[in-house]
Amino acid sequence: MDRQKTTGAMNEADLAQLLSHVQAGYADAWGELYRQYAPAIFRFCRRLLPAREDAEDATTEVFMKVRQKLGTYDSSRPFTAWLYKVASNHCWDTLRRRRIRQDLETGDVDALPLEHPDPGQLQRLQNEHTSKEVRTGLAKLPDRARMALVLRYYADMSYDEIADTLGVRRAFVGVLLLRARHQLRDALSETGASMAAKSGGRKP
Amino acid sequence: MNPSDDPLASHFDEVTALLYLEGQLDEEHSRDVAAHVASCAPCSQLLRALQSETVWLQESLMAEDEPIPARLVAAPERGTAHWGWIAAFGLCAGGLYTVWNGIVAPAIANMSQAGFSQGNVLNMLFFYGAFWKGWDAMRSLTELLALMTLGGLGIWLLRKQWRRFTPIVFVMGALACALLLPPAAAAADIERGDPSYTLPAGQEVKNDLIVAADRTRIDGDVDGDLIVFSSSLTVNGHVKGDILAFGQEVRVNGPVDGNVRAWGQSVVLDSAIAKNVMAWTGELELNEKSTVGGSLTMFSGTSELSGKVAGDLLAFAGNLEINGLLGRDATIRGDRLIIGPNAQIQGQTKYTGRRQPDVSPGAKLGSPIQITMLKTGPDYTRVRYYWHRVLLWGASFLFGLLLFLLAPGFFVDAGHAVRRIGPALGFGALFLFATPIVAIIACVTIVGLGVGITGLLLWLIAIYTAQVFVGSWVGEKLLGEGVGAGAVIGRLALGLAVIRVVTMVPYVAFWINVVVTCWGMGALVLALHRKMRPQLPAAA
User: Fold this and answer.
1) Shortest CA gap A83–chain B (Å)
2) Are residues A93 and A114 in the same domain?
3) How far apart are CA B305 and CA B321, in angstroms?
4) pLDDT tens, B370-382?
5) Which of A107, B132, B230, B463 has the fewest CB atoms within 10 Å, i.e. is most exposed?
6) Is the confidence at residue B166, as pLDDT, over 70?
7) Which of the listed residues A70, A98, A126 is the one where a domain comes to its end?
8) Which residues from B are below 8 Å from A56, CB to CB?
């Protein structure tokens, strides 16, 4: 996994110079930084927020926050990590505003199916669904499950960063990710109707 | 790992497998898993399947599906919300400046020239100054304010939707229809005085009659309703519908088959009114010959009721003298009540005031007067005062709780909006002052009485609701941002209690209430805007 895959390549020296110019107040530098990273942040927000309008608003608002907070950015850390952190906090805040009753954190592995998934069926699921269908399935997931998957597999965040963003214990992140995968498999199985969600795998 | 006697149980569970793949297990645990996988085909298969799923997820999420929208091509230079509250404050400031310059200052100057004291400024301002010869200016001002409010609201609601042509056309079309169609469709004759208007005796208006003039005199008959904006109105003819009058002096000498609703400095009724009378007035006079077929509701400075009222009387009056017949119950709240020798009240009389009523021995009362005496200002020495405050707190808390349970999402939205103190205060002030103006205009010119009254009721509810959101904010500042319903309710309870306590402080209580109302109402408006924004289904 590499965050640069989502943000486009820009070497460290160029980025450092660009950031210093932005901090010095050069409008051109700000425009360049935006052009470089806005598409990735828009796609990131698009995957987190079900409504396209919200993703557009969020992109604008994230960059306004970035401009305000750029002074607090620690240049010893990767810029993209910091950028995704700002964006994910903003999107999570947006989602939380919509819904007070978040499902409470429960570290119970019992809630997960005991059966191992059938590798063959998992493979079929992957073969039968396009990227577009995966993203459609993702939009049907509960907010936190969707956030977890996107933070991990799009923004390449560490478990610590995910725990911090979602306000859960670090030990719970793995359960959260696995549960989200199960929910995504179920959502795709329902739409595809070609594969049973739960296979008769072996018992542990 | 799930060690057990059962050989199958020695397989790793799926969480462990995922954590292993993602490098989240400690070294020892990781070694165990690696050793097990080397000799266990099913677990090895599971790892491969999960790894394949990880790659599939990454590729699916990273696949570019849509280009960046056109509106996001240019980098944002400025915050999206700041202009909103600047505009709101600007509108408020403009409105206040215009009111002050156009009405208050001239009214005070006129009062001084006429030798009036500062004794009853409100009465002078609203019932004398505003309705004096400057009514046209007042009407223009209120219409302008209303249009500015509607326009501003429309722009604000649509500010992020410029790309959507259909909703803009729909909203603007609806707005245009609302403004244009009713006057064209209404069956009413509209007359404008030059500067006065007279409907001569013997002439009959077959429709409703709407008049705006300096002085209005109706000697002829009106088949429908009579709606008048005028410094002086005298009705000598027969009105078969209702009379709705705004003016300094309103005098009704002719019979009215419907209701009379009047706002003015002085209202004199000297005829038979078949239905109800409602009056907001400095002085109200119901002469001996006059009769009211229904009830009489009045908000008045000085009143004299010598005629007959068949229904109930509800009076909020400074000085009230009753010397006529009241067919049913009388509920009176005021400073002074005199019941004269010719008075006859057939129902029950309830009076609340600061002075004992003066009841003539000759007055005929259906039952003894129920008197409740009021004291000036809160009595901090009485337990009852504090009990009353507790009850008020309980009522607001229950209301907030109900709101939270019925609409938790909206409650949280408003809770977030209240943190944006500037915009919330700006929009709150705007809606607090503009809503009644718009509602009153809606009552008269745009859609109808029902819409206007509904708007006013919603406005009153919004005023009460405002404290809930500010209370929540105060609670959050004191207790912190706990998650879950219990924390929200706790914050609400504490915050409302704090508001109740600080509004017990003399002198500043009023201003605290104003700020709380503006702030909370602004949060409500912002949250409503959030709710009203269209949510598109996810496009993959």
Assistant:
1) 15
2) no
3) 6
4) 888 876 667 777 8
5) A107
6) no
7) A98
8) 69, 71-72
